[in-house]
Amino acid sequence: MKYYFIFLLLSFLTGCKESEKEKIARLVKEWDGKEISFPPHSVFTIQGKDTIDFSFADAEYKIVTYVDSVGCTSCKLQLPRWKEFMHEVDSLVQGKVPFVFYFHPKDVKELRYITRRDAFTYPVCIDEKDDFNALNRFPGEMTFQSFLLNRENKVIAIGNPVYNPKVKELYLQRLTNGKMPSSSVAMTDVSVNTANMD
Q: Of 176, 167, 158, 169, which is closest to residue 97 (Cα–Cα)?
């Protein structure tokens, strides 16, 4: 009887677990149209040292990313990939879309080192008290801690464009109103002018 009860409890718990597709659908539905709040006194710096006046309130669109202190900071940040994506967005919309980065690091010195190492010179807010997350209660999965917002700071797309090519395509489609060029990657021709090389 005791084993039957344990089996019944285990089957109930596993039966209630939502699938990955259901979880994604739930998160998208929960966050779609939700307004993101920003801490009133956010300080943005370049590589954690030079404070900069960074305003994004009047932008028609903005891309917002929150990175928490859980796990490998460098792995989560992916700053070189963000730089590539930012360059691509800037070339499509002439620099009209600000990128808003809020980082809640476990080690501020490590974050400064990573931004210098990756030559990341875009303004970021080092949110040591985690105020941004306290206001919004972001999902725990890092793939759902990036958002495309409209002028009213309402979510129109969720997902990390540097981790997921489909999310990247969705962001670019939204930012260009569906007029994105079929290939935004320039093709390079290479030719060799000698037949032999030593």
A: 176
Q: Which class for 67: exposed (0-12), middle (13-18), buried (19 or more C-beta within 10 A)?
A: buried
**What 3-state class would DSSP assign to 192?**
coil
The residues spanned by each domain of the chain are 35-175
pTM: 0.78
- CA-to-CA separations, 123 to 47, 100, 137, in angstroms, rounded: 8, 8, 23
CATH architecture type of domain 35-175: 3-Layer(aba) Sandwich (3.40)
Closest to 72 (Cα-Cα) out of 99, 110, 46: 110
Q: Above 90 in pLDDT, residue 36?
A: yes
Name the band, by pLDDT with cuts 50, 70 and 90, for residue 9.
very low
